[in-house]
Give the backbone structure.
Amino acid sequence: MLAIERTIQAMLEQRATDKLEHDERMRFSEERINRLEDVAVKLANIEEAQNKMLVSIDEDRPTVLRRLMAIENKVDSLIERDRRA
């Protein structure tokens, strides 16, 4: 009987150890999921801010964009003229 009791006790202890390890893995997984969710929210906020910035540039500063496009076109034409020469 003593051997059976020891076996049962060992099995119960192993079960308790397994449960603790499982609980720890679950906590770790939940923490990682929470961190990933936080990162996703931060990325969404960055994307929203970038979109607002681009809209602002398009709406509030069309002159700057036109000037930049004119400069780009001039550089492109100079490059093209240089290639032909």
Observations:
- The CA atoms of residues 69 and 75 lie 10 Å apart.
